[in-house]
TrEMBL record:
Protein name: Glyoxalase/bleomycin resistance/extradiol dioxygenase family protein
UniProt keyword annotation of Oxidoreductase present: yes
VOC domain boundaries: 3-127
Superkingdom: Bacteria
Organism: Pelomonas aquatica
Pfam families to which the protein is assigned, alphabetical: Glyoxalase (PF00903)
Amino acid sequence: MHKQIYVNLPVKDLAASKAFYEAVGYTFNPHFTNDKGAGLELGENLYAMLLTEDFARTFTPKTLIDNKTSTGGWMCLSCESREEVDALVAKARAAGGNIPGKAEDHGFMYGHGFEDPDGHHWELVHMTGMPPQG
């Protein structure tokens, strides 16, 4: 099957978006970063391409949505622990991110999330088992 994933995210201000994600603790691949986009490294073989809106429009004839007022989808990342979930949300809050909800503990799964400066929604989860059947 697939070996990597690249999620493309249009952003209004590339420098501000890069600063936000760096403050949360992420890095960028310099080989995939220039003035039109930045290759955000989320983990082994997990990437998000932050693309300026003008550059993103060269890939699609569709209208780009405003993620602060509309939801076109959201990303979910697994974490090693509840503490990692909480630490990333705290860093996102400190970097100016929006925290749209409260942490949720479902027994087998703990989750919380944040929105970046463009309103892209990121869920963070720590799984300790499987959901109950039925």
